[in-house]
């Protein structure tokens, strides 16, 4: 795994990262060979993990970030393991579904795939899920797009290109299934959107480079365009997936 840009800030990640629709978890469960165990790798603060728990007997969230796991939600059939994606420590042949939501671009993929094969049951479903830049309402789009491409853009780690391509170029050596259409829609206030932007790896890199001014200028301009900061605005993230049989 590359540098972990999310080894801190678990509280913000839990508060501001969008979770996934129940329909996505149901679709993944319906494609799984059984519903005994799902393993959510690179689970962060459990944005997908908790939703899977509605459809599987047990769910295990795996993440190398202690601070992320500390802020993940709990349920009786959900447990968490602090471990890298490439060495989960889980028992062999135990997972009917393995997911990696907004995480696979950080993995050492050959090592992760070997681990996924090891912990999976025959015919298990592997789902690599990602969403790229959010789509804002029309009057906010130009300012956001300029920020994303030109201002914060240089601070994205190289792996971000895989997200922006919808994982189209990611190595995926498995019999592939057609992915169901999916997306995320939220009605957010200005503080919620800015909180989300603050969780980006690019935002952390900008702050560490002494360029918080990039974030501050964007926040100021967006506030002027937004109006009442508590006004709810529609934010949309199209989801892309690679689904395969192990």
Could you outline the blueprint of secondary structure elements for this entry?
Layout: H1 10-16, H2 22-31, E1 37-41, H3 49-52, E2 58-63, H4 66-70, E3 78-82, E4 95-101, H5 109-119, E5 120-131, H6 138-151, H7 160-164, E6 176-177, E7 183-188, H8 190-198, H9 201-208, H10 212-226, E8 233-245
Parallel strand pairs: 1-2, 1-4, 2-3, 4-5
Antiparallel strand pairs: 5-8, 6-8, 7-8
What does this entry look like structurally?
It contains ten helices and eight strands. The chain is of the alpha/beta class. Strands 1, 2, 3, 4, 5, 6, 7 and 8 form an eight-stranded mixed beta sheet that branches. Helix 4 (66-70) links the parallel strand 2 (58-63) and strand 3. Helix 1 crosses helix 8 (190-198) and helix 6 (138-151) packs antiparallel against helix 10 (212-226).
Q: Helical element count? A: 10
Taking pLDDT < 50 over at least 5 consecutive residues as the criterion, the unreliable ranges are 4-8
What is the element string, with H for helices and E for strands? HHEHEHEEHEHHEEHHHE
Query: How would you classify the helix and strand content by structural class?
Result: alpha/beta
How much helicity do the residues have?
A: 25-40%
* Rg calculated over all Cα atoms: 18 Å
What best-fitting shape do the alpha-carbon axes yield? Answer: globular
Number of strands: 8
Biggest sheet overview: 8 strands, mixed
Could you tell me the strand content as a percent range? Answer: 15-25%
Q: Calculate the terminal CA-CA distance, rounded to whole Å.
A: 21 Å
Whole-number mean pLDDT: 93
């Amino acid at each position: 795994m590359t540098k972990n840009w999310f080894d801190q800030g678990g509280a913000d990640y839990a508060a501001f990262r969008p979770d996934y629709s129940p329909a996505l978890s149901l679709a993944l469960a319906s494609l799984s060979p059984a519903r005994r165990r799902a393993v959510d790798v690179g689970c962060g603060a459990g944005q997908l993990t908790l939703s899977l728990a509605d459809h599987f007997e047990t769910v295990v969230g795996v993440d190398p970030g202690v601070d992320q796991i500390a802020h993940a939600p709990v349920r009786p059939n959900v447990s968490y393991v602090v471990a890298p994606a490439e060495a989960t420590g889980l028992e062999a042949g135990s997972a009917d579904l393995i997911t990696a939501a907004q995480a696979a671009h950080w993995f050492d993929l050959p090592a992760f795939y070997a681990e996924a094969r090891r912990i999976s049951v025959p015919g298990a479903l592997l789902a690599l899920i990602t969403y790229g830049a959010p789509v804002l309402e029309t009057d906010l789009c130009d300012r956001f797009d300029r920020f994303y491409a030109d201002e914060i853009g240089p601070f994205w780690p190289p792996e971000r290109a895989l997200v922006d391509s919808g994982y189209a170029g990611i190595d995926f050596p498995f019999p592939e299934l057609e992915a169901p259409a999916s997306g995320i829609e939220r009605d957010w206030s200005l503080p919620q959107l800015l909180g989300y932007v603050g969780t980006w790896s690019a935002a952390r890199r900008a702050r560490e480079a002494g360029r918080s001014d990039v974030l501050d200028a964007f926040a100021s301009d967006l506030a002027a365009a937004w109006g009442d900061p508590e006004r709810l605005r529609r934010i949309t993230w199209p989801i892309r997936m690679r689904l395969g049989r192990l």
